[in-house]
UniProtKB/TrEMBL annotation:
Keywords from the UniProt entry: Glycosyltransferase, NAD, Transferase
Molecular function terms, GO-annotated: NAD+ poly-ADP-ribosyltransferase activity; NAD+-protein mono-ADP-ribosyltransferase activity
InterPro entries: ARTD-AVP (IPR051712), Kinase-like_dom_sf (IPR011009), Poly(ADP-ribose)pol_cat_dom (IPR012317)
GO CC annotations on file: nucleus
Organism of derivation: Polarella glacialis (Dinoflagellate)
Domain named PARP catalytic: residues: 115-341
EC number: 2.4.2.-
Broad EC category: transferase
A Pfam family of this chain: PARP
Name this protein carries in UniProt: Poly [ADP-ribose] polymerase
Length: 341
């Protein structure tokens, strides 16, 4: 009989005494599976779906074939995504920094110049938005839109609309329950941070005419008001570049941008125009589609910069755009008025 100092047999990988990072993963998988057993004994059916997803990960960590095991980093990433999706799906509470209490009517709350933003922590809201405006704007676009001047934040208001917030939370729960989304490729600009990677929830800009703002703050963004002649369908368009969103605002007078929480879920990346598209759930199997749509459907359309078949500009797409087709999948949280100085 072999004596294994410092080793407990049931935690050992089958390839023992050979040891590697893969055998460490096996041992971790055993520990995590036991923790899941404790969880089940203690909480019964609660979060059963999430537990089954976690069991799938621990099962692969304990594969007999060491090459089939995920690495520790991969395992941790999967577990983090599952847990954050569970948190998103169960959390309908309003952001902690809102002033309106649950049940109170919708309000547009002015954000003071020195109010600290809660993401990323430490910056003032005005400072963060001013920096994002400048950093996500092409020089040529700035010159075209502001001449020799620079864009400047004139005011910031926060929409605290409990009804729209609930609608958004329900959409987020539905998206989270459909499984984990793959990361956006290429990543969204850093100025527009991810809120929840499990359903690709991001902060993105939406530009609109001044006369539309009040209706959006009351009723939310509405895909039914989108025009079918949009290049990528009758959806709601967002960008991680302020100059693109500003193209949709008024050319004269104060320009309005909405900084929205947006659920991109599982995007469809197009290299073609998609005029008349009403929903990414049933993308047409047209011959000019370069990426086959997934059978399960998609939640959004992403257009990366570059050549686009059918684009009126022979150089194709200059800015990156994100299109959703369900207004419930966006929450317009900040109204930023932009002026030139
Ligand atoms: Zn631009």
């Amino acid at each position: 009989m072999t004596t294994m100092v410092g080793t407990t047999p049931e935690f050992m990988a089958p390839e023992f005494p050979e040891s590697s990072t893969a055998s460490d993963v096996f041992s971790l998988g055993v520990v995590c599976a036991r923790l899941l057993d404790c969880w089940e004994q203690r909480f019964g059916q609660e979060l059963k779906d999430e537990r089954n997803l976690l069991r799938d990960v621990t099962g692969r960590m304990q594969s007999r074939d060491k090459d089939a095991r995920p690495t520790a980093v991969e395992s941790l990433e999967e577990v983090t995504k599952i847990l954050s999706a569970a948190q998103a799906s169960s959390d309908r509470s309003q952001p902690s920094y809102w002033q309106q209490l649950p049940g109170q009517p919708s309000a547009k709350v002015p954000v003071a110049r020195d109010e600290i933003l809660h993401w990323p922590a430490g910056q003032t809201t005005w400072g963060q938005f001013s920096a994002a405006l400048k950093q996500t704007m092409h020089d040529s676009c700035r010159q075209h839109q502001f001449g020799d001047c620079s864009p400047s934040v004139r005011s910031v208001e926060r929409l605290e609309n409990p009804m729209l917030w609930q609608r958004y939370c329900v959409a987020r729960e539905r998206m989270a329950s459909s499984g984990l989304a793959s990361p956006i490729n290429p990543p969204v600009r850093l100025e527009n941070p991810v809120i929840d990677s499990s359903c690709n929830e991001y902060w993105l800009w939406h530009g609109t005419r001044h006369h539309n703002v009040e209706a959006i703050l009351k009723e939310g963004l509405d895909e039914h008001l989108s025009l079918l002649d949009g290049l990528y369908g009758a959806g709601i368009y967002f960008s991680d570049e302020a100059c693109k969103a500003l193209q949709y605002s008024d050319a004269n007078g104060p320009r309005y941008l909405l900084l929205c929480r947006v659920l991109l879920g599982r995007p469809y990346y197009t290299r073609n125009i998609l005029k008349t598209l009403r929903s990414p759930k049933n993308l047409p199997e047209r011959g000019d589609l370069l990426q086959r749509p997934e059978a399960a459907g998609h939640d959004s359309v992403i257009v990366n910069a570059g050549p686009i078949q059918g684009h009126p500009n022979p150089n194709g797409q200059v800015h990156r755009e994100f299109v959703i087709f369900d207004g419930a999948c966006a929450y317009p949280e900040f109204v930023v008025s932009v002026d030139k100085v």
